[in-house]
Design a protein that fits this description.
This protein has helices at about 15-25, 35-45, 45-60, 65-75, 95-105, 120-130, 170-180, 185-190, 205-224, and strands at about 5-10, 30-35, 85, 110-115, 130-135, 140, 160, 195-200. It starts with a strand and ends with a helix. A five-stranded parallel beta sheet has the order 2-3-1-4-8, sandwiched between helices. Helix content is about 50%, strand content about 15%. The chain has a domain at about 5-30 and about 75-120 and about 180-224: Rossmann fold (3-Layer(aba) Sandwich), CATH 3.40.50. Strand 5 and strand 6 form a beta hairpin. With about 220 residues, it is of the alpha/beta class. It binds adenosine monophosphate (AMP). Adenosine monophosphate binds near residues 12, 34, 38, 59 and 165. Adenosine monophosphate (AMP) binds next to helix 2 and helix 3.
Length: about 220
């Protein structure tokens, strides 16, 4: 079976993480989420975390040279041999070029780039209502998926907080950064014939069904 090397593209709050988790369950591929890797580095106070934190808190991108090496090494690990789901990388044309070169050097190539198209107003409503338990990692939404007791995690009653980068003003900043720096990747991957579009305003299960159908087609095309 050919490798399944996928990128999830889209603004913050499009549901990339949710769909990546689904794809991991469907195909047993590692979910490589740059945001999670960086947040773990910040929490662990590693050198990477110390370098990344101030950019993340401000809603800016971490510089390419700080993040690219980390992700390229991760993609080369054993568990990603049969494929991977990249979530949050690449986010700039430079990062996309680096990834392309790295894959080519290893005689690998991308299977597809899945764009979850989601308008800004939907993103702002989704992210600014997001709350998370620092202890359990469980994520809630004040309107769409509220906990049983306000401000408390259903799992263990721990306090729910809003991530610094989920505050509305930071979300607006992240969207500006997305439009300026990441959106050019749509044309970039379209030119390479790799882009597939999904409607991010649909329910997570509908988006998942569409993605599955598309991957089945991509695989068939791959075998031809
Ligand atoms: P995320 O959870 O994917 O939205 O990422 C959270 C934050 O981590 C972003 O706002 C950026 O500051 C940083 N980040 C994540 N992925 C990247 C990337 N590929 N390049 C630069 N910064 C990134």
């Amino acid at each position: 079976m050919a490798e399944l090397n996928l990128i999830l593209l889209g603004p913050p709050g499009a549901g990339k993480g949710t769909q990546a988790t689904n794809l991991t369950a469907d195909f047993g591929l590692p979910h490589i989420a740059t945001g999670d890797i960086l947040r773990a580095a910040v929490a662990g106070e590693t050198e990477l975390g110390r370098e990344a934190k101030r950019y993340m808190d401000a809603g800016d991108l971490v510089p390419d040279k700080v993040i690219t090496g980390v992700i390229l090494e991760r993609v080369a690990e054993d568990d990603a041999r049969d494929g991977f789901v990249l979530d949050g990388f690449p986010r700039t044309v430079d990062q996309a070029d680096s990834l392309g070169k790295e894959l080519e050097a290893r005689e690998r190539r991308l299977t597809g780039v899945l764009l979850i198209d989601t308008p800004d107003d939907v993103v702002i409503k989704r992210i600014s209502g997001r709350r998370v338990s620092r202890k359990t990692g469980r994520i809630y939404h004040v309107d769409f998926d509220p906990p049983t007791h306000e401000g408390r995690c259903d799992v263990d009653g721990s306090e729910l907080i809003q991530r610094d980068d989920d505050r509305e003003e930071t979300v607006r900043k992240r969207l500006v950064v997305y439009h300026e720096q990441t959106e050019p990747l749509i044309a970039y991957y379209e030119d390479l014939g790799l882009l597939r579009r999904f409607d991010g305003t649909r329910s997570p299960s509908e988006v998942h069904a569409h993605i599955r159908a598309t991957i089945a087609t991509l695989r068939l095309e791959d075998e031809l």
